[in-house]
Specification:
The protein has 154 residues and is α+β, with helices and mostly antiparallel strands. Helices cover 33% and strands 18% of the residues.
Length: 154
């Protein structure tokens, strides 16, 4: 059985990391590179059928990271977390995630925790939404919008 209390610990660790990234020191590329997946991370996150397309798709992202779009006043971070297998059903933990996760859920390694987060200005209801942060126990790796690089199963 998947432990909801472990999700709380992972969310806490992720929030600490994301708050550090939010600080104005360093450029956007340096911030994104902290989350760049290691070679072995792909096998820990995606099943065999999706490995090649994930590696190829994310190689393009990491070759030229996009600008860091978070504004200085967006100091509140909201985080949602779900286990990979939650996307296969209608688990309430998946509500904050984009719908593309459901279509690729068979390609995600079970037991991995995926996170979605939003940077919001105090008092605002909407901000900048990010997805695809994965807990790998000793570090986090970022696989944004995985449905764009991993085709849905036939």
């Amino acid at each position: 059985m998947l432990d909801p209390s472990s999700l709380e610990v992972i969310v806490f660790r992720a929030k600490q990391l994301l708050e550090q990234m939010q600080k104005p020191n360093g450029g956007a590329a340096e911030k994104f590179l902290k989350l760049k997946p290691r070679d072995e991370d792909y096998e820990a996150v995606f099943t065999g059928a999706a490995l090649a397309s994930a590696r190829a798709g994310y190689a393009r992202l990491w070759a030229a990271p996009p600008p860091w779009p978070v504004k200085p006043d967006q100091t509140t971070i909201r985080i949602g977390a779900a286990y990979a297998e939650d996307f296969a059903g209608a688990d309430p933990r998946t509500r904050p995630f984009p719908g593309g996760y459901k279509g690729i859920s068979p390609h995600l390694v079970p037991g991995r925790v995926w996170l979605v987060w939003e940077h919001v200005a105090p008092g605002a209801t909407d901000g900048i939404l990010f997805d695809g942060l994965v807990d790998l126990s000793d570090h986090f790796a970022w696989f944004p919008k995985p449905w764009r690089v991993v085709p849905p199963p036939p």
